[in-house]
Specification:
This protein is 75% helix and 0% strand. It has helices at 6-22, 29-36, 40-44, 50-73, 80-97, 100-105, 108-111, 115-142, 151-171, 178-193. By secondary structure, the protein is mostly helical.
Length: 197
């Protein structure tokens, strides 16, 4: 688990805002140092490169995401479908509060030429997929979720649908209601796969 200093967090947050506003190609050490009133040399004392900042950002977000997810996973007294709702509510709320992080996570096309960054994005996606898959499997084992489709496939469909919802929100310039739209999509999916009590 990486520990970040307050200054590193400040730099990463400024980087996310710059990416959100101008695109990832406008994230340079020079631009970033100007944004936060820090010399380039001082910035280099905290991060070795632009890629180091991006990797830090992804790591920082994933650590925060894992803390939230672990708290939801621990609620074993709740039905799997309810934990899925809580999981996505938590993610969508985080995206709404920090919309610029979505610009970073959804820049994986640009990361494809950097093995370390693409591995970090892949790990984040795989981590979320594993949790969704476990909830769906638990629901299937308990008889509350249909077995017509395998748990892995259902987890992929749920994750993909939510990802499209977030992407549409990002492309709209955050004008739509992400929490409302995401809840509608997830509840619609759950209605199709949940068995009536």
């Amino acid at each position: 688990m990486a520990d970040f200093s307050d200054r590193q967090i400040e730099i990463m947050e400024a980087a996310t805002r710059r990416i959100d506003r101008y695109g990832i190609q406008e994230l340079t050490i020079k631009n970033l140092s100007g944004d936060i009133g820090l010399s380039e040399a001082a910035l280099y004392r905290h991060f070795k490169s632009k890629n180091d900042i991006l990797l830090g950002l992804l790591t920082y977000f994933m650590q925060e995401m894992n803390r939230r997810v672990e708290a939801i996973v621990a609620k074993e007294n709740k039905k799997p479908a309810d934990r899925l709702r809580e999981l996505f509510s938590s993610q969508l709320n985080t995206f709404t509060q920090k919309p610029s992080i979505v610009s970073v996570i959804f820049s994986e096309g640009i990361f494809q030429f950097n093995r370390e960054l693409s591995a970090a994005v892949a790990e984040m996606m795989e981590s979320m997929h594993t949790v969704i898959d476990a909830f769906v499997k638990e629901g299937q084992d308990a008889g509350s979720i249909t077995r017509h489709v395998g748990h892995y496939t259902l987890a992929t469909i749920i994750m993909g649908s939510m990802r499209i919802t977030v992407l549409k929100w990002k492309i709209s310039g955050h004008k739509s209601d992400l929490i409302k739209d995401g809840s509608k999509v997830l509840n619609g999916l759950l209605k199709m796969i949940e068995k009536a009590d």
